[in-house]
Amino acid sequence: MLELVDLSVNYGGIEALKDIHLTVHQGEIVTLIGANGAGKTTTLKSISRLINPVKGKIIYNGKDITHTAPHEIVQAGIAHSPEGRRILAQQTVLTNLELGAYVRNDKLGIKADLEKQFTIFPRLAERKNQVAGTLSGGEQQMLAIARAVMSRPKLLLLDEPSLGLAPQIVKEIFQVIRQLHDDGTTILLVEQNASLALECSDRGYVLEAGYLKITGAAQDLLKDERVKQAYLG
Fold first, then answer.
1. What is the pTM of this model?
2. Rounded average pLDDT over 166-192
3. How many domains is the chain partitioned into structurally?
């Protein structure tokens, strides 16, 4: 479904990603782990076309999307739930969700998907007319994921969905990630909680200072001594 081919990204004179080669197959959950500054968020921003690579290609369903506009990326079936949630704090929960479906014009389908998100996230249903900036951190993360899903993505990019959340909320978020996967969404996940992320994934990649250092089946990475010492405590 997705392939990054020799992808390199610079921030000014700093090389953030260097000759990255990464694949995501349809139906997988693939996790990208690494220390802060390793290039994980940069990888997702490159795929969603929020930043421009200096070299390499991004191939999605056999099509080169390296120079595609961000709104066309969403129309093609890729949605991005960014690090830090980036909700519209002054708008209601409902408005945030409706804006997540801005590339669609099927009113009945949008209405049905709103009800589906409210079923998955009952707290959002309770607060649908509440201003989003007044939600708790966990509720804002739920909103960020639900908003991304409102575009009906085939590939969902999730950037640090558990960041700053209490353990019980993290558990709920990962239950939702598994449910989305079971419903047919392919997921590329960036996550600080490497153990939890790998436990629900098919495969994983380890980024170090912009380079891909280790790749393999998620269960193998959980047992890899290098990964255990660096990321699994």
1. 0.92
2. 92
3. 1
